[in-house]
Amino acid sequence: MKYKVLITTSGTGTRLGDITKYTNKSLVKVGKKPVISYIIEAYPKNTQLVVTLGYFGNQVREFIEMVYPDRKIEFVQVDKYEGVGTSLGYSMLQAKNYLQCPFIYHACDTIVMEQHIPSPSTNWIGGYKGDGSSHYASFDIVDGKIKEIYDKGYLNPDYLHIGLIGIKNYQEFWINLDNNYKKNPNDSTLNDVIALNAMFKENIDFKVINFKKWYDIGNVESLQKARQDINDSFYILDKLGESIFIFDKFVVKFFSDEKLVKQRVARAKILKGLVPAIESSTKNFYKYKYAKGDLFSDVANPSDFNKFLNWSKNKLWKVTNEASSENFKQICHDFYYKKTIERIDKFLESRSIIDQSNTINGEKIPPIKDILKLVNFEELCNADQTMFHGDFILDNIIKTKKGYSLLDWRQNFVGY
């Protein structure tokens, strides 16, 4: 049947703490991809999607348009998504005019692993049999029917409400949600459950779809569980404000700092042929071709490593003059000294550590900043200019059939 899918990404995702400090909850990584990818890819390609935008909405739109250009997607800008007068129900109502047909509501923090999500040819509610009713709404089946969805804290329910519903009777759904909104526009608890409970009272039937594998990424604990079960064969350190998403034919890199994206794209042009070819970029993302080959750290041996050094000498370490000698020296100072000091200060502050002398393994060790005074940064910053890659470790190098592909190149020295 013809229907649409509503995905609400407008909320701030505060339960995830610092994880959503620089990005939207739907772009949080699980396995190789962000949550939104699991949701979009759960539906046939010809399915019309309606996505609400709010908190870091520009990032959500950029990502979807870059990765899924062949999908049918309507974006709805939510004017209020934090503070008084905001709620899930309010965001849903912002998309009401786009959903005057049967539709599925799929919460942006819900991942289900079933291969087929049924169409809303009948009304249905996605349920999960398991513990956790203290954290989630839930419901029982009485005489084959759902009578009510309970608030968090209900003991021993038949199912947990997972934030995935099919709505055939869309007119009744919108009428009930709109009526409850008008009663109290500032009700922050307004959501789909309120409209569903009103529909139950009107004797509108809903069946249960039992999803056997469901992951909620809306809080830190459940996100960790999802990441354990949906793991990534590539070990990549999580960083705030930075992510890497790996697809079958391409890789997408995210930076919350738009300047870094612009500089990395510029640097990739200089390193053409040495790094994967960039296919497209936006303010916060760039997309490059997947480099096929072996991770060099897995296959390197003395003979191959010697070949790699010769390859680097011929292809990479070429003398260049991108900056004046004075500018280059300042750039090196900022990169080697200033950046090191900034990282040390951040580490000490985050752990409430005082930089002072300590005894380690029986040896008296001076404060770390005293140790740094022993480093001859003047000599270090007087190096000759050559082409460079950046994070030159074997885990960032792919051995290909034709040579090597360098990953995770650095943006420094661009624009001087």
Can you characterise this structure?
30% of the residues lie in helices and 23% in strands. By secondary structure, it is of the alpha+beta class. It has a domain at 4-229: Spore Coat Polysaccharide Biosynthesis Protein SpsA, Chain A (Alpha-Beta Complex), CATH 3.90.550.10. The strands form six sheets. Strands 1, 4, 5, 6, 8, 9, 10, 11 and 12 form a nine-stranded mixed beta sheet that branches. The chain has a four-stranded antiparallel beta sheet with strand order 14-15-17-16, with helices on both faces. Strands 18-21-22 form a three-stranded antiparallel beta sheet. Strand 14 (242-246) and strand 15 form a beta hairpin. Helix 4 crosses helix 5 (192-201). The chain is elongated and about 80 Å long. 32% of the residues are buried.
